[in-house]
Amino acid sequence: MKVLSIDFENCFGIGKLNHEFDFNNSNSYLIYAPNGTMKTSFAKTLDLIAKNDKKNQPKDHIHNKKSKFKVLSDGVEINPNTILIINAEDNSFDATNKITSFIASKELKERYDAIYAELNNAKNELIKKLKAISQSSDCEGEYIGTFEEDKNSNFFGILSNHIHELKDDIDKISFKYNSVFDTKGNVKVFLSKNEDLLDNYIKDYNEIISNSKLFKLTGSNTFGTYQVNEILKSIEDNSYFEAGHKFVLEDGTEIKNSTELKKLFQDEVEKILADKKLKESFDKVDKAIGANTELRAFKKVIEKDNSLLVNLKDYNEFKKKVWTSFLSEIKDEAKTLAELYERQKKELEAIIREAKKEASLWDEITRKFNARFYIPFEVKIVNQHDVILKQETASLQFIYKDKEEAPAVQTKENLLKILSKGEQRAYFILQFLFEIESRQLSDETTLLIFDDIADSFDYKNKYAIIEYIQDLHLSNKFKSLILTHNFDFYRTLASRLALYKHTLMATRDNNRCIQLKEGLYMRDLFKEYLKNHEEPKVFISLISFVRNLIEYTDSSMSADCIKLTGCLHQKENSEAITINEVFDVFKSRITKLKDKVIDFNGNEKIIDFIFSTADHIENEKNINEILLENKITLAVACRLKTEQYLIKSLPEVDLAKIKANQTKELSTKYKTKYVDSKNLEIIDKVNLMTPENIHINAFMYEPLIDMSVYHLIDLYKQTKGLN
Asked: Rounded to whole angstroms, how far apart are CA atoms 40 and 19?
């Protein structure tokens, strides 16, 4: 990915954007995009390209114009899988499953995957047969849930531990699994709520069975109707008796053919069915079941064989017997899979031992996160063994730390409730760290789009983000486009990563056409201004800077400071101040300007000079929207025009008594006097859009840098029309 070409048209808020990013000399580009310019639309467009969903593509929501979204990597359409959008506001992003990519080296992972592929293929075949027998909606899950002893249990281990319980002659189950062991647990709840009814039925049933000539109750086992039916099926053709065999009952009665056994069975069943006491007990249970519509399937099973109620006394134990019966029907296949697992388990354990000797990348990620970010919680991965052995998603443990309290383990949900906005964003960043680090292992280069990644962070965590971006910047696995509207973050990142030649600023015209121009204001702004002091716009912009210097080094009451204040606010002396007087103050206060000269008319009044320069900016074609001197000049001109109007409208006001915030003071008085004035909206805009003070600290210029020059031009036109 040496050259990335972007060609967007009508993609959300972007009308047109065509730009080529040359990564030959740098892995990163830094883009400062004022609010509302293109940042969100740019990131959203690339995100949809990455998702590669044909039904959800970039579009123009407002004008419904045809969209174009072409991204080329070295002249070829980019692979969507190589794009990753990093937005700390995306709380739905979860990449902890990427940790499974970090278990070990590529060779170990291939061996590991090959073993599990063989095991899973064999398991799937067994599950297919088991489902046909049990008719369970979730064979694997139900089987594991029935036998699991701890959270480390898995299908293979459980099957291996219970394979010896499978039998050749086990009693078959005649009902559908979920008819008795339903997924919602309604049967179990019913049995628990009606325990007394069930106990009475079992008591009455056992009394009859114990007195039966054919049926018997021995210990925990019952020889009942189901068992006799199974015998009848196997001797129906009389071959058993023709071979000379016979049945001898406990009381000595001999059964010499199937007809005699059938008659005895029918007689004994009739005795059970005719037992009034047992019938009453069953009717009570049956009535209770019938009152619950969710137990219809269970009701049919019990009516077919009411002796099942005896087994259901111990619901969980009976469930185990049922699964043992199901699996016994495919005993050979189950045994083959268990043996395969036991053989492969040794190889898996050897891989794990070898993998643990290698550097664990997930540990390094959490270590870096805990070390770099200033947050009240520590992150740990607690199921590393499961991630490797069972291919499960990693489980993160969050330990909340309070100076006054002992550390406490918190769930993700509870943690997010107690964290500040910035701390929550740090958590979401952790998710992206797993995703990014997993891509380190990929053979392809990934395009990272950082969408205001440091917004809302405090300074300590903002620098942690910068440190991490610097790590990625030095890696050839990534190419980064870092978008921000935070001026301080923009300047800091440009400096830390030395991105001066790879820094851009976004501008947008009235047709929503975006241009990415050479980035400015990364270094000391005023050094450049001093070099270019002869440019009218720069000269005007220096007024506030020099005045600020005087306030710091001398006094706000000094003659020089008062003179420069009269250039920024309409004072009694404002109309008389000339350009030469202002320049004399500059030269007396700044050594570098001491022997400098200016080309323009020094005798011109500074107020007239400011307005004529603002007029020139207003009429400038193809204006450079980025230049700060344009915005400072317009802001000063807007404020002066507004103050001139306010002073004219308030002749009773004594300007000498206003010591600070003159524009605001005059505005307040005007609003009180002219409650219904049509000009109130314009005056409010001036107070909002032009800062009261422009300070030496470059960070204070951010509101003006973020503001569109076109908005200031419109405001200047409005202030000129105040009357």
From this structure: 17
Distance CA 311, CA 289 (A): 17
With 0.70 as the threshold, say if the pTM is over it: no
Sequence letter at residue 7: D
Closest CA to 696 of 537, 503, 542, 567: 542
| Contact of 436 with 472, CB cutoff 8 Å | yes
- Sheet containing 478-484: which strands, arranged edge to edge? 76-77, 68-73, 3-11, 14-22, 513-518, 503-508, 28-32, 478-484, 446-451, 83-86
Task: Report the pLDDT averaged over residues 124-137.
Answer: 91
| 271: exposed, middle or buried (Cβ count in 10 Å: 0-12, 13-18, 19+) | middle
What is 175-207 written as a DSSP string?
S-HHHHS-TT-HHHHHHHHTHHHHHHHHHHHHH
**24 contacts 3 by C-beta, under 8 angstroms:** yes
**DSSP letter at 634?**
H
Number of other residues whose CB lies within 10 A of the CB of residue 541: 26
Closest CA to 712 of 628, 647, 601, 655: 628
In 439-529, beta strands by DSSP E? 446-451, 478-484, 503-508, 513-518
Dist CA 691 CA 107 (whole Å): 62
First to last CA, the chain: 59
Q: Tokens standing for 241?
A: 């008796």
- Parallel, antiparallel, or unpaired for β 446-451 and 83-86? parallel
Among 692, 571, 715, CA closest to 634:
715
Which residue is listed with tokens 């078959």?
172
- DSSP assignment letter at 164: G
Percentage of the chain exceeding pLDDT 70: 89
Q: CA 602, 607, 610, 612 torsion: positive or negative? A: negative
CA Rg value for the chain:
41
List C-alpha distances in Å: 477 to 94, 99, 106, 303: 22, 18, 17, 67
Residue 468: partners with Cβ closer than 8 Å, 6 or more residues away: 368, 372, 433
Mean pLDDT of 244-252: 80
pLDDT classification of 132: cutoffs 50, 70, 90: very high
Closest CA to 47 of 485, 434, 448, 437: 448
Predicted pLDDT at 488: 82
Confidence of residue 391 (pLDDT cuts 50, 70, 90): very low
Distance CA 522, CA 505 (A): 11
Residue written as tokens 């593509």?
Answer: 57
**Minimal CA–CA distance to 611: which of 629, 634, 581?**
634
